Structures are given as C-alpha cells and as structure tokens.
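pls design
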C-alpha cells in the first residue's frame, strides 16, 4: 500500500546541538534522521522518469551496506541476500509473507521417524553457470565446505550436523545425518547455497576451500551471473540464459546492487530513476518524501526484524544486572517509536518478534522511567565510573538517533555515553571477541530463518560467542540448557513453552534493550513490477522483476 504520512525536515546538526529535553529531542530527531539540507530535494527532482516505448531491462537496488564478500558461505546477514538469492540456489527457499518453505533445487525431502536422517531428491538438469550439471556431490561439497570454513552461516548448523555427515546416495539424492535431533533444521536448510564443486576445488590453495578466489568470483547456478564486484561500491550481474526456472514472461536482463550510504543519496537516486529499489533501513521521513515523488511508490510490509541495543554482559559495569536494568529504563521506547519512527514500528519488549510463536503474550518489558533507572543504579554493586561506548551503524539514521536519545537520558542519571558510528561490517568484526566488542551496540536482528532460535538462540547461547549475533556475551547455564532443549524436542507446544521461559529470563536480567519490531518500508520505481517481499530474503530476489508503464 502507498505510504503518505506527512512530516517535517530538521538538520542532523540541529539534533546534536539542541537542548536534549525529551519533547524537543524527539521533535527534532523525527526530521533529522534524513540528514542536512534535504528540504529542497523534492524541488531538485523532476518527478521521476517517464520511460519510452521500450521499458528498462536493468534494475538497480540501492543498499546502504557494502557487500563484504561474494562467497555465500562466509556472511550471514541481509547484505548477503543479493548474492545468495540471485547468483546461487538453495535446496529449499522461503517465499511469501508469512514465509513458507517451498521446493527449489530439491523437489522433495523426507525425514526419518527419529528426526536424524534427512533425504533430499534433486531436480535433474540444473546447470551451473559454466554449463556443468548440479548434482548430489555439489550439495555434499557445499555443506562440508560451509561447515569446515566455520563462518557465520555455519553457526546455525553446528548444533545439528558435522562435516562428513552429508553423502550422495546417488547422483540426484542427498542424505544428511544429524548427530542429535534439531527441530529448526527445515528452517535453516535455505541458508545453504550450493556451489560448483569442480570450479571451486580448482581454486583451492593450502586447504582454504577456494575462499580467496570465491571472495570476488562466483560458482553458482542462480538466475544471474556475476559481472563486476567491488565491496565498497557494489556489484552487477547479467541474466543466466539457461537458468532452470526459465525466462518465460517478462523479466529484467541484468541487475545491479549500488552502495549508497547516505539517506539523501538514496532519496535523490530513486527520485531521478537512477535506482529502482531503496534500502529498507531508512528513517520514516525519507519514505514520506519519496511518497510525494511522482515516479516512486512506497510499500509497507510487516516483518520479523527487531531493533535492539546490545549490552556487553561480561564487561563491568554492564556485568551487573542492576546497571543493565537502569539503562533499560532510561530508553524512551514510546517516544522513539512515535517521534523518530513516526509510528511505523511495533513495540517489541523481548528478544523474539511479537508476531512469532515463542514470544510471551503477557511480556511487558521495560518502559521509560528515569526514577526507576536511578533506583536500580543505586542498587548496583558495580558503579558506572567510566564513560560507556556505543556503536551505531553509519548511514542508518535510526540507529544513530537511538544512540542520541539514550545518550541524552543517561546523562540525566549520571552516565556518560559516547557514540561512535561505524559500518555494519565493523560491528560484525567487533563481535568476534569479548575484547573487541563494544559496551553497547545498536543493530537489527533479521529473519534468516523464521524460528525463535534465529533470535534468542543465536543471541544468548554461549556456544555462539564470537559471532555478531551473540554480541551481548551473555552466559547462563540455565539459558544454555533451555535453548539446547528447545532445539531438540519435536513438540511445538514444548518448544514454545521453553522459548517463552527463555524470553522472560532475558527481560528480567535485562540482557539487552529491546525496542521495536519493524514495519518495513521500501521505495520502488512506480514502473517496477514483480516485487515479492518475504521476511526471509528481504524482497531481494531479482528474477521476478520487470518494468512496465
């Protein structure tokens, strides 16, 4: 549906300099999120291009995050979707909203009664980009490669399967043997991208699984072939004519992912027709401006993406739960959602999205209350005797504004919060050790698979330490036991009870600051057709897209 709420512009500098009273802060922040000097943007944009007799065949997506790698077995983040969904294929894939598993490379699958043996039967005749046929051996190599490299995507598979536990029963049948029952296994299978084992093996050096080569090349069977890749600026791809889904009907012939970090640049490019899809993590005022442009449509979709501020539970003084509770009470949740987000978000009081099973219905979470914040600070055994550092994602004004709001309120209870804006790759890198992780970090938890384990399991299982999802470095034998049991039991009712118990513990101990669940917005060219959003994949599959007047 079209989004037509109105708003005003205020400069980012003004936010930094105004007296930080709650009302004045929120009023300024709501407009400041899109940066300085954008009030005249609409007058600079001619209302969007009118295409000629022949519609475009090249689609451009503007992202705010650099594409760190083209290797699908290294990154496990929204920024990796343009690679995994377009250059590669998966055994199964999520589509639709709410997301549902659909057959992809695997036409069918079976599970043994004990839940340990999974058998997938592959489509025949699927070709890699070099013309070779994708086979069961390709899947075996891909699973072993991903697990052995032990990067982000491997983390979700490690509680279930080990390298060497996948075998080819015949050319088109794959068998995976789990070492223990793992209830979310069906949900995580779409994370595995299948690579051309013959191509990658030729590029292996010193047992690196071809990682150096695949970082800026591809070896997939997806709808598009990589043409150019540069992490800081983006990538381009062209149609793979022999793609197994075919090209009947209307489709674009090529696609581009262009890195546009600034909000103003995102608005300017979609308005002038230089891009056809914007990033979704932009402030509401940006979308209000886009909605006024003649050549742009703004769409809204309910998602499973939560916004949180992580707190380093192992580092004093944040190792004291009373300090964390005090900070949790110092964030103005309702004011932020209404003032900065323009009401385009839903309060999410715990770690699991409120619209997903496993989130307790009665969970209230924390509210903005500086008196309670002072009370908990007074109870704390550890005193906040040093400035705290918080990382926000540069180019995403929402996380920056969250930091400014928290900074303003913490100052009122005697805590000095210092903000630093960095790229998401820098945030991900910071989470690799307790020493490099920041005191606080603002980021989103997206739906990589629609199971509570995607959120609370990845965030608070101590076995996940060293990944960006586990930035809190929380440690509890009780939590570890609950999360482990929730992965192994097959009863949905028992799993839900366990995740609800874990959620209540997380809120009681104030592991992190839980803020909102996203109502996603995206600017689209009004001539773009075929856009299909799913919370898993973020609407970044380009095969269905085409243009029409």
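designed seq:
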């Amino acid at each position: 549906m079209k989004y037509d709420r109105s708003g005003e512009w205020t400069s980012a500098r003004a936010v930094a300099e105004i007296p930080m009273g709650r009302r004045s802060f929120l009023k300024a922040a709501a407009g400041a999120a899109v940066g300085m000097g954008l009030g005249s943007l609409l007058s600079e944009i001619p209302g969007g291009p009118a295409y000629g007799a022949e519609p475009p065949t090249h689609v451009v997506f503007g992202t705010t995050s650099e594409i760190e790698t083209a290797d699908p077995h290294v990154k496990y983040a929204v920024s990796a979707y343009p690679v995994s969904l377009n250059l590669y294929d998966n055994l199964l894939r999520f589509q639709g909203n709410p997301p549902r598993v659909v057959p992809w490379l695997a036409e069918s699958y079976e599970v043994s009664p004990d839940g340990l043996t999974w058998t997938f039967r592959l489509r025949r005749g699927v070709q890699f980009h070099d013309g070779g046929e994708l086979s069961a051996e390709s899947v075996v190599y891909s699973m072993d490669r991903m697990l052995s490299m032990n990067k982000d995507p491997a983390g979700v598979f490690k509680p279930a399967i080990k390298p060497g536990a996948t075998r080819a029963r015949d050319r088109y049948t794959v068998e995976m043997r789990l070492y223990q029952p793992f209830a979310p296994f069906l949900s995580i299978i779409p994370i595995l991208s299948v690579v051309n084992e013959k191509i990658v093996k030729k590029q292996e050096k010193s047992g690196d699984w071809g990682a150096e080569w695949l970082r800026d090349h591809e070896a997939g069977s997806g709808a598009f072939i990589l043409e150019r890749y540069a992490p800081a600026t983006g990538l381009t791809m062209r149609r793979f004519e022999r793609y197994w889904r075919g090209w009947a009907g209307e489709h674009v012939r090529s696609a581009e992912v262009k890195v546009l970090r600034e909000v103003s640049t995102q608005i300017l490019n979609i308005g002038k027709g230089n891009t056809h899809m914007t990033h979704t993590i932009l402030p509401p005022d940006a979308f209000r401006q886009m909605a006024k442009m003649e050549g742009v449509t703004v769409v809204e979709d309910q998602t499973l993406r939560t916004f949180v501020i992580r707190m380093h539970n192992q580092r004093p003084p944040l190792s004291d739960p009373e300090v964390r509770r005090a900070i949790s009470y110092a964030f103005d949740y309702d004011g932020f959602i209404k003032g900065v987000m323009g009401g385009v978000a839903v309060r999410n009081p715990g770690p699991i999205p409120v619209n997903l099973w496993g989130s307790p219905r009665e969970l209230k979470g924390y509210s903005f209350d500086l008196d309670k914040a002072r009370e908990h600070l007074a109870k704390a055994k550890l005193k906040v005797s040093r400035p705290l550092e918080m990382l926000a994602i540069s180019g995403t004004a929402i996380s920056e504004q969250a930091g400014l709001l928290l900074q303003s309120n913490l100052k009122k209870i005697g805590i000095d919060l210092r903000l630093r804006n960095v790229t998401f790759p820098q945030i991900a890198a910071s989470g690799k050790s307790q020493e490099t992780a920041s005191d606080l970090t603002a980021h989103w938890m997206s739906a990589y698979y629609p199971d509570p384990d995607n959120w609370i399991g990845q965030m608070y299982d101590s076995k996940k330490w060293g990944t960006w999802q586990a930035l809190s470095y929380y440690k509890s034998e009780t939590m570890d036991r609950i999360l482990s049991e929730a992965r192994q039991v097959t009863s949905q009712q028992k799993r839900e009870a366990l995740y609800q118990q874990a959620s209540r513990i997380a809120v009681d101990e104030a592991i992190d600051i839980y803020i909102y669940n996203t109502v996603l917005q995206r600017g689209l060219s009004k001539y773009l057709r075929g856009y299909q959003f799913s919370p898993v994949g973020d609407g970044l599959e380009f095969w269905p897209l085409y243009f029409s007047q």
